[in-house]
């Protein structure tokens, strides 16, 4: 092989590497995860572990789990949401509780990535922690009492849920 061919192949390999690095950085930015190293992802390439805490009675899985310095940061993707919802904040708070319980390090924040890749940082404050624990207690009371939540507007999201009969009792159940 001539020197010119070897040089050409090295130049092409370098250009390919540069393009791949640029594409990877743009994909990470589009997902809202430009910061930190990806520890796990809920996709087919990098498996995300299911986080379980017997102490909290809580189970969850992050769309992405990042390592930023010494902290673990959960990232939730909400590609159809145009604005941050209270349910998104509570979900990130619950994931932060799980991460703290499992890894022993309190996440300073979580991230929700909305439509068009817009990132919303959710601070994991003591207030949010109390709100998540209050909401979990309220949910457990509703389930234990077999009460209807009365949230009929959420019907399309509820049909596949295993708790559907508790929230949407039939006339025979009443």
First CA to last CA: what distance?
Answer: 83 Å
Strand order of the largest sheet: 1-4-5-6-7
CATH topology type of the largest domain: Lambda Exonuclease, Chain A
- Helices, by number, come to 5
The number of distinct β-strands equals: 7
**Mean residue pLDDT:** 78
Low-confidence segments? none
- Give a short account of the largest sheet: 5 strands, mixed
Supply Rg.
Answer: 22 Å
Q: Total domains, how many?
A: 2
Q: Fraction of residues in helices?
A: 40-55%
Derived structural class: alpha+beta
Element order: H for helix, E for strand: HEEEEEHEEHHH
The best one-word shape is elongated
Strand content of the residues, in percent? 15-25%
Examine the secondary-structure arrangement and name the CATH architecture of the largest domain: Alpha-Beta Complex
CATH class value of the largest domain: Alpha Beta
Report on the structure:
This protein is of the alpha+beta class. It folds into two domains: 1-31; 35-149, Lambda Exonuclease, Chain A, CATH 3.90.320. The protein is 43% helix and 19% strand. The protein has five helices and seven strands. The protein has helices at residues 3-31, 86-103, 126-145, 155-158, 164-167, and strands spanning 37-41, 51-53, 58-60, 64-68, 71-77, 109-113, 119-123. It has a five-stranded mixed β-sheet. Strands 2-3 form a two-stranded antiparallel ribbon. A hairpin with a 4-residue loop joins strand 2 (51-53) and strand 3 (58-60). The radius of gyration is 22 Å and the shape is elongated. The chain starts with a helix and ends in a 7-residue tail after the last helix. 19% of the residues are buried.
């Amino acid at each position: 092989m001539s020197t010119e061919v070897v040089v050409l192949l090295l130049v092409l390999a370098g250009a390919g590497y540069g393009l791949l690095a640029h594409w990877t950085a743009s994909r990470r930015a589009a997902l809202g995860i430009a910061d930190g190293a990806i520890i796990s992802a809920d996709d087919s390439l990098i498996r995300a572990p299911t986080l379980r805490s017997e102490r909290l009675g809580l189970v969850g899985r992050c769309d992405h789990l990042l390592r930023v310095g010494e902290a673990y940061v959960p990232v939730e993707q909400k590609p159809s949401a145009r604005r941050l919802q209270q349910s998104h904040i509570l979900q990130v708070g619950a994931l932060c509780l799980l991460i703290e319980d499992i890894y022993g390090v309190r996440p300073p924040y979580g991230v929700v990535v909305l439509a068009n890749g817009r990132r919303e940082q959710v601070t994991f404050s003591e207030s949010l922690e109390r709100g998540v624990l209050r909401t979990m207690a309220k949910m457990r009371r509703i389930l234990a009492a077999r009460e209807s939540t009365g949230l009929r507007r959420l019907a399309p999201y509820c049909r596949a849920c295993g708790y559907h009969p508790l929230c949407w009792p039939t006339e025979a159940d009443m």
